Amino acid sequence: MESIEHLINYLADPKILIVLAAFLLFVSLRYPQKFYTNITGIGVFAAMGLFLVLSIFNPEFQKVVTKPDNVPIVGMLFLVPFFTWFSLREAVRNDKRKAEGQQLIEQDETADKVLSWPDLVYTELICMVVLTVVLIGWSLLLKAPI
Amino acid sequence: MEVLHAIGIAASILLPVVILILVISITAVKRGEASMGHGASHATATAHAAPAATAKAAAGGKLIPRRSMISWMTVAWAAFSASMLAAATATGRFMFPNVLFEPPPTFKAGNPDELQQGIVDERFKQRFGVWLVKDNDVVTGVLGIYALSTVCTHLGCTPNWLDGEQKFKCPCHGSGYYKNGINFEGPTPRPLERYAISLADDGQILVDKSKKFQYEKGEWASPQSFLKV
Amino acid sequence: MSPDAIGQYIQETQIYRSVFRVGVPDSDRKRMLVMLGSVFLHLHPVKVRKSGIRMRYTWCMGGITFFLFLVLTFTGLLLMFYYRPTLEYAYVDIIDLRQQVPLGIMREIHRWGAHAMVIAVWLHMYRVFMTGSYKPPREFNWNVGVILLVLTLLLSFTGYLLPWDQLAMWAITVGSNMARATPFLGNEGPGSALLALGDIRLVTNASDARFGLLGGRFVGESALLRFYVLHCVGLPLIAGFLMAIHFWRIRRDGGISGPL
After folding, report:
1. What are phi and psi of B176, to 5 degrees?
2. Structural domains present in chain C
3. Mean pLDDT in consecutive groups of 10 residues from the start of chain C, 260 residues
4. Residue-wise over B188-206: b if at least 16 C-beta within 10 A, else e?
5. Residue-averaged pLDDT of chain B
6. Using a CB-CB distance cutoff of 8 angstroms, which residues of chain C are in contact with residue B92?
7. Distance linking the first and last C-alpha atoms of chain A
8. 3-state secondary structure string, chain C?
9. pLDDT at B220 over 80
10. Distance CA A125, CA C53 (A)
11. Which ipTM score applies to this complex?
12. What is the average per-residue pLDDT within B61-90?
């Protein structure tokens, strides 16, 4: 465990982490078909989740990550890579369709129009309810700093 | 006085707007007259009845405006822009208060004899944000009193005087200064600032926070920044 | 009386018909009319493209941002009943909002909602970029969106000062000190000495951009009041105005996720 922690601390040095991350990003954009698939997505986010779960036992890590004002930052650390992967996965799918001479996913969907009521409005309502529950749960669990 | 002030501002905004409205309405009325057919009823007497201001095209009535010495539209637009600019300036000036509810910049800080040499006086730190030190001047070597600002020159926090270690230490990012205010550790790029210091008429020390002196600009050589004893 | 019968009865009363002109949208015609007839719903078009309701495409982020804005406006309004923006009361009122005001989580909802809104607005910007929805003729709307982003961040900045604790005061001190360095208009910025009438400097510690922002020479009572007014009234009004333009432009430029 000690040696793993040492390795992670070494890699977390901004000089190394930023360069490594930038390099990985460029490589992934060069070969997007390999990197932005369902398997890699599940793999990467499962790995991140595992890292979080295992590291939470380190008291210093726990203190930093669970500090109320830091929780949104931790959230962003998941959300931004997730949405990058999410959007580029669609991009890869569209690229494949274009190469095969088919229409893009959105062009296919554009032809159909659906009624706002109920399709859009119901989706929005569910989204709002979920968001409200999340916000209230968040507010009950974490106290704002003062 | 204030009333005159207000009237002046109001007039300078209203006047151009009034001119604008008048000009546009007069221009519009004139154009309207020309196209309405006041000329049509005198159709036969075309030579002098057809208004010199317009020349009608065939059965369509397209007007060609007459060129006049002054382009009234330009005047109107200029007046409008000027009034808008005046309004914006007035709003901007509104945001700068004339009266501040802050402690006055100058204050009396007791008699020079109350200070011991080599000791940092913290009596005025809380209320006025000033440290008084009686010591040899770092620039001239002469004994006297100087007033150091309690604002850290890094990002503006308030340092603490650590008597045991004989240094000022800022709790925010660790900037450190010697007793004379010169920085020696931490992220701060320059020494603490001095305020103007002099002797009041009744013999007390007078500190003027509205004048500051920065060491790195050579301003500590100014006699206003140091009170010789 | 069965629930159905009660429902039928209510739907036939004059009050109901006056409020809900269309009634329950159980036919396609009614579903279209209800979208046109309601002032809130008519933000949406009657029909949308399929990709417009796909989370895969829109991520829902624009809608989430707007919803959070409404949540923050409402919770902010409620907080205003118990908060006084003066040096004497600001801090204790914030403490009281947690300790003695009913449902002691109103401040938390407001603060975490603000964090969530900032995250949502960045993700929304990210989505618009990834789907190329900024390309002509949508450049103007992208710019309006960027201004809205800046306004969101400014709302966070002004709101941060209001608890009047150490965190707030120093954060705003550091942040507003940046205004000192503005070229020409900042006391310690380049070119400020040029704006002088002979010997008298026009741009001083008590008359530069930072002074106008804070209403004083340091972060004090005037700054608290100004930031309170900006946070509760000024910035939300401007943001609301720009949001109206933003939403209208989306409809006008072909609807959400419309093709170019």
Report:
1. -125, 140
2. 1-47 (no CATH), 48-252 (1.20.810.10)
3. 86 91 88 90 88 86 95 96 94 93 92 96 95 91 97 97 93 90 88 84 86 91 96 97 96 79
4. beebbbbbbbeeeeeeebb
5. 83
6. 212
7. 36
8. CCHHHHHHHHHCCHHHHHHCCCCCCCCHHHHHHHHHHCCCHHHCCCEEEHHHHCHHHHCCHHHHHHHHHHHHHHHHHHHHCCCCCCCCCHHHHHHHHHHCCCCCCHHHHHHHHHHHHHHHHHHHHHHHHHCCCCCCCCHHHHHHHHHHHHHHHHHHHHHHHCCCCHHHHHHHHHHHHHHHHCCCCCCCCCCHHHCEECCEECCCCCCCHHHHHHCCCCCCHHHHHHHHHHHHHHHHHHHHHHHHHHHHHHHHCCCCCCCC
9. yes
10. 13
11. 0.92
12. 81
Contacts of C215 in chain B (CB under 8 A): 95, 97
pLDDT of the residue at B2: 66
Q: Which two tokens stand for residue C116?
A: 């969530």
Residues of B (161-200) whose Cβ lies below 8 Å from C = 172
User: In Å, how far is B95's CA from the nearest CA of chain C?
Assistant: 6
Q: How far is C150 from chain B (nearest CA, A)?
A: 21
Query: Domains in chain B, ordered, with CATH?
Result: 1-40+71-96 (no CATH), 106-228 (2.102.10.10)
pLDDT tens sequence across A21-54: 999 999 999 999 999 999 999 999 999 999 999 8
Q: List CB contacts of C149: < 8 A, sequence separation 6 or more.
A: C121, C122, C125
